[in-house]
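Collaborator request, handled under Task 6.
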Amino acid sequence: MKSNSRLAWFLLIILSLIWGSSFILIKKALLAFSPLQVGSARIVISFLAFLPLFIYQFKSINWSKLWGFLVVGICGSGIPAFLYAIGQTHVSSGVAGVLNSLTPIFSFLLAFLFFKQKYSIYQMLGISCGFIGIILIFLGGQNSGAHFEYAYAALIVIATIFYAISANTVNKFLKSEPPIVISTISFMLVGPFVMIYLLSTDVFELIQHHPEGWTSLWALIILSLVGTFGANILFFKLIQITDAIFSTSVAFLIPFVALFWGFWDGESIGLLHLVSLIIILFGIFLIKYSKKPR
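Structure tokens returned to the collaborator:
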């Protein structure tokens, strides 16, 4: 029991480091590639990594839930990869990490609005904190010295809403399916189409001739294989040995890792961004740890 507890904390820290580093990796990938190429390559590399698992699991897949897998593929694996890449052309990686922490808040809000999930007054207060945090980030966007434009920050916020749609789809319609199967199929459904687009671009020419081509390629490989493929497997293991509340507490740690990498890379983080982070994390705490109504 004690060994499981130590393993759980170890996995939580590792996951926070991996996912918190994804924003700086996107930034480095954008040095050579366009946002659409970054989003596409991230999906394609993950698709190729998951392909052997798909072949191995093919006979056990419940294809009657294909539409649910498709929603997860589009909203969880597909669209956000492009929105983050586009957004980070004008938003610093640290601020992107802070905005990413809105995902649990939007997940609860959608569950309440569309799936009739019951709520407590503290959880609604948590939702309010999340939106106050968003407002503060946007208010501090142009005056903090951080690289920031409103429309591009909004794309990252929209990406977290897509993540929330994916999470609610899994919770409501795919709860009986093994998590690793859900992730595998989601990339199988979007990967081939994205690969067609990626191969039609000058991505290989950029790798060979752009001064930052290989740097950006390695950033994409690490982002996909470690940040998506490997982290998914670690996350599923964490869920198995703990519970959903503990495992999703990684959302508390990711922004701090993202801000650290941003600071290390010379990014300026405004005071309002730090205040908004605290408010958003407090909102997540209220939503996740307040007692649910009977």
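The cover message to the collaborator said: "DSSP finds 14 helices and no strands in the chain. Residues 2-289 form one domain. Please let us know whether this matches your experimental observations."
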